[in-house]
Amino acid sequence: MRAIWTVASKELVDLFRDRKTVVLGLLLGPLLMPGIILGTGALVESKVRTQLESTLVLPVAGAGRAPNLVAFLESRNIEVVEAPENTVVAVREQVAPVVLHIAPDYAARWRDSLPAPVELTYDSSLQDAQIPLQRVHQVLREYSATVASLRALQRGQSPLSSQAVQVAWRDVATPEARRGMLLTFLPYLLILFSFIGSAALVIDVTAGERERQSLEPLLATPAARTAIMSGKILAACLFGMLGLLLIVLAFKVSFQLAPGPLQLVDVSLPVAAQLLLVLLPMVLIGTTLLTLIAAGARSVKEAQSYLSVLMLLPIAPTLILMVNPVKNQLWQFSVPFLAQNQMLLKLIRGEVISPAEWAVYMLCGFALGLFLWLLAARLYHRESLGVSG
Amino acid sequence: MIHIDDLHKSFRTRGATVQAVRGVSFSARDGEILGLLGPNGAGKTTTLRMLYTLMAPEQGRVEVDGVDVQQHPTTVRQRLGVLPDARGIYKRLTARENIAYFGRLHDLDARTIDTRIAALADTLAMGDFLDRRAEGFSQGQRTKTAIARALVHNPRNVVLDEPTNGLDVMTTRRLRSFLRGLRDDGHCIVFSSHIMQEVAALCDRMVVMARGEVQAIGTPDTLRRQTGLDDLEDVFVRLAGLEESAA
Fold it and tell me: What Rg value do the Cα atoms of chain A yield, rounded?
């Protein structure tokens, strides 16, 4: 036990004397994350506001066939302009987000009180076109409903008779959950940071020390190899948790400063503490896995080349859930990365995590950490570890 | 006391198997300095690595103070002070912190560590750089720090791999008198070198190694008589069989 602490404290002293690495490792995350939150928050906010409130320029083909409709559009803050020759190309090339085409038989069918055809051309794969499309669609429906009511009145019918069913919307999402939708990227960032946040340190204390040939004298001391390895893992975990603490604090501050609905995200101290608790098994898993890799790799370079693959792991559950959303089930709390994702989302959405979910989560997280630790310990006992050159 | 009996070790590199050590046997007594002499690649470092438990021999056994290295590696490591070929000083720690770190790993208490560091710094003349960070240390300062680190627990047996590599004359002389002092205190010292004069100046007995095998064991005088040569360098060249390979 004493050897573990001796090694851990030496590694931390050694690390903290490397000012630049520490500053980059500890402060880059906490500074970058708020930048992302505040930046994207502000960007989305201003984008939505401009698209909702500014005058929408709408190319209309055959505007002359429907002067009343054009006047109605213009009364709703939509500026009608001449449509380009080829509407499909214009939309594809993003000249206009949406183009309205008034059919040649519009006037004739209008006079016969038949549904008069208009066509909206848009590209559903363009995020940017969503708000303009909805605005135009909304105005068209409004116009249609208004004219329909007037026609019914003219014929002595109740305007309500054309409405057979009245649909009401009831959204059960809590305000926290609705905000949570804005924050789907947050779990990924937190998991990524806890998973490989202290990668530089972990790789350095095993593969780096081996490369600098200082592992040989260390392994010739009576301290058990497992203890030496555990000390190094402990140091990396402590450093990782310190980094995460700073990141969570930075989140708290930046949500308070963020514009719009993000401002309402309350990272209270109990929530912050639970976030850290959720990330603790991930830090252990990441550190032991990287120790395993570093002990097996021939050089620092080789160990580092695993990082690009590891960076993709935390995003896997998010991708799977995006393509195939599944209901919250207990087994999910046993799958690494998916479990962290679910736990973090629950915390951010302000939902209650049941004791059973906590138990399964913690048990499985630490079990995987222990398993990786055992594998790493096996590699640490290999003869080739201490021998360099 | 160190006893090595019929050690074998081979390495596999890209399909080819290299026999690094082939049946090496020798003993080093307490109160004796034993020199392990051989050209580069003779198997000295591999032999020493098996002695300080970093590698397991394929065949043969090593005993330190009568304790089997394979069966009780921890006990053996407590009784050994090791200066490996690679010094491996932590450059962001001071010399004192480097030494104290190993003291703690040897389970020494803080006061013992302080006393030992004071004593070692005095004998090795480390006063002027003891509390400086190792970054930018000269070769000699690094070696001194590594030696002090290897001896912080005052081990009965001392194993030094090429201790005088890269040291200037005065530092080498001081190191020699330091090692003689250890011998006179009854320590058992094994050190390796590829320089004949180095071994001759310091050792009571020498083991000449070449191509993974022991070629000769004895005092410098015995070896002179054995070969009928006067110059020690010639003795070494003859015993190590270097004439044939050079021709």
Answer: 30
DSSP state of A305: T
pLDDT in tens, B10-49: 988 777 888 899 999 999 999 999 999 988 888 999 999 9
Distance CA B150, CA B57 (A): 23
3 state DSSP class of A139: helix
**Facing residue for A383 by CB, picked from B55, B90, B107:** B55
- What pLDDT sits at residue B246? 47
pLDDT above 90 (res A95): no
The DSSP code sequence of A144-204 is: HHHHHHHHHHHTT--GGGG------------HHHHHHHTTTHHHHHHHHHHHHTTHHHHHI
Question: Is residue A222 within 8 angstroms of chain B, CB to CB?
Answer: yes
Domains along chain A with CATH numbers: 2-41+182-386 (no CATH), 51-162 (3.40.190)
> Is B101's CB within 8 Å of A10's CB?
yes
Residue listed under structure tokens 């940017």: A128
Q: With 0-12 CB in 10 A as exposed, 13-18 as middle and 19+ as buried, what is B192?
A: buried
In this prediction, residue A266 carries a pLDDT of: 67
CA-based nearest residue to A252, from A240, A239, A234, A270: A270
Distance CA B1, CA A374 (A): 36
Flag if A2 and B90 touch (Cβ within 8 Å): no
Helix/strand/coil for B27: strand
**To 10 degrees, the CA torsion angle through A73, A76, A77, A81?**
0
CATH number of this structure's domain B2-246: 3.40.50.300
Nearest CA in chain B to A380: B54
Torsion angles phi and psi, residue B160, rounded to 5: -125, 120
Smallest CA-to-CA distance from A196 within A315, A282, A293 is with A282
Q: Which residue has the tokens 């202290």?
A: A198
> How large is the average pLDDT for residues A6-19?
93
Query: What chain A residue is nearest to B11 in terms of C-alpha separation?
Result: A384
Query: Which of A6, A17, A383 lies closest to B92 in CB terms?
Result: A17
Q: Is A98:A136 a contact under the CB 8 Å cutoff?
A: yes
Measure CA B22 to chain center: 20
- Residue A329, pLDDT > 90, answer no
Alpha-carbon span B191 to B217, nearest angstrom? 14
What count of CB pairs under 8 Å joins A to B?
A: 79
- Note the pLDDT tens digit of each residue in B156-197: 999 999 888 878 888 888 889 989 999 999 999 999 988 888
